[in-house]
Structures are given as structure tokens and as C-alpha cells.
Amino acid sequence: MQTLTSQIGSATIPNPGGWNMSNDGRIYPRGRCPICGGAFKPIDNDLICPVHLTRPKRAYIQIQSRNIFSDPKGHPFYSYEQAKRYLDRMRTEIDEKTFDLSRYLAHKLKPLQLQNWSKTWLEKKEKEVDLGRKPLMPTLIILWWLD
């Protein structure tokens, strides 16, 4: 009896949709088994300690070298399934070429992004320059660097 692999050899089967599906990103557990301290393993679409059958209290997504610990509203991923739903949505957007990582960052973290933080910092410095408290040159250098 031949298997599908032996029939097609090393050729890859194209996706019925005609495009390659993205496999970017991965879900990781936060922490270790509370009983034995062992690592959680991915088993049947879940993260489980193989010895004690415990699950992690939280999970996170790693995609494009960034760790995402919560949804955009700031709710942490309490289960593998919850994180997988967001990861599947991200992969779909990557396939459709509409993915923007900033949409998946928690809203409370957005003010801490360099672009947003630097704009507010520059506005403060420009006010100080206008009032004559700070010299103009360092502010101009930073403006040049950001452009």
C-alpha cells in the first residue's frame, strides 16, 4: 500500500486556494508547571505539562520578533485557545498583506512606542526653546535624526 508521500515524492502539494499560507508566529506559555517546574509542551492544540497535565495560567504570542502578551484592550491571554484566535487572525492578515503589528499592541503601550514618545518629547522641548530655557541645537539634531 502506497502512502500519499510515496506517491508524490518530495513535491509539495499546493494550497487549494492557490497561495502559500503564512505560518508566522508561535504561542508560548508564560511560566512553568507549578508542581514540577517543568516546561509546558504543545499537545493537541494546547499547552500542557506532560507529567501533571497542568496548563499555564497565561500564554503569549511571538511574531516578527515581538512578544504580545494581551489583546489590544489589554486583556491577557489566559488560554492557548484565546492566543490562537489572535494568532490566526494575524496570519490571515499576513496572507492578505494587510498586517500591521501596531494594531495588536495594547492601547496602554502605544504611548510608549518610540514614535509617539518622541513626538510628545519634542513638543515639550520646542516649548522650552520658545521660552528661551533650552538651546535650539540639540532639538534640531533630534528632529534631523527622526526624519
Q: What distinguishing features does this structure have?
A:
single chain; 147 residues; alpha+beta; 2 domains; three-stranded antiparallel β-sheet; two-stranded antiparallel ribbon; 5 strands; 12% strand; disordered N terminus
Q: Give the helix level as a range of percent.
A: 25-40%
Mean pLDDT: 75
Number of strand elements: 5
What integer value in Å does the Rg equal? 23 Å
Portion in beta strands: 5-15%
User: What's the arrangement of strands in the largest beta sheet?
Assistant: 1-4-5
Structural commentary:
It is built from four helices and five strands. It has 147 residues and is α+β, with helices and mostly antiparallel strands. The protein has two domains: 86 residues, no CATH class; 34 residues. A three-stranded antiparallel sheet has the order 1-4-5, with helices on one face. A two-stranded antiparallel ribbon has the order 2-3.
Q: How is the secondary structure organized here?
A:
Elements lengths: L3 H5 L17 E5 L10 E2 L4 E2 L9 E6 L2 E3 L11 H16 L18 H17 L5 H11 L1
Antiparallel strand pairs: 1-4, 2-3, 4-5
Helix pairs in contact: 3-4
